[in-house]
Amino acid sequence: MLQLPRKLTEQHKSSKLVWVFLSLSFNTFLVYLMLWLTSAGEIQNKKTQILMGVIFSPHQTKKELAPLETLFKLTQAPQSAPAPAPPIALNLALDALEKTLSLPQNILLQTENALHLNNINLDISALGDQTMSLMTNKITQAKPIFQIPPQYPLYAKRHAIEGFVTLDLHINADGRVKSIKVFKEKPTGIFSHSAKKAVLRWRFLAPKSTQWQRITIRYELEK
Predict the structure, then answer these.
(1) How many domains does the chain have?
(2) What is the pLDDT of residue 222?
(3) Which of 2, 75, 100, 209 suits 131 as a labelling partner, its CA being 20 to 30 A distant?
């Protein structure tokens, strides 16, 4: 009866030893597994850091930006400020305009003194038709002191059209053209617009009272 408990105790001890060994082995396996996982994570982190270091290396960025800094310094060289333009005195007096205005050639202004304009003959006359009304009797000669030559209409120039326009100008006491009436035009509707546009900018010697002035503008091409 005493021997059975001894055998049981020995078997119990041996089973405990087996369990202790198994537990130690399992714990050792777990420790190695954790170490392996930790080392693998560190290796992966190191690889990631190396790759990022290659892409975003501060040393490499400085080398790439160096030429840009040089170019910026070259383009930012100090430049001397341009000298201010001297003030220009403007003299808008009619006498000064008359003296300094250079008119193109090939236009004949038929007045007391022949003034050459451009491709256009201007006949300024104080005489009207015998058949005109009371306005004709009041037409007098006002001396022009500033003229801008009319432009030859592009349509007429392309089709080699020549002609004339006779205008009656209503000149006020300031020597400005107040109103314009087309007395005669040939061919009709070709040259009147160009003539009126130019005459509106003309200046005449101020008359004693409001006067009518008749002018004829002839459009002729160079031959």
Answers:
(1) 2
(2) 85
(3) 209
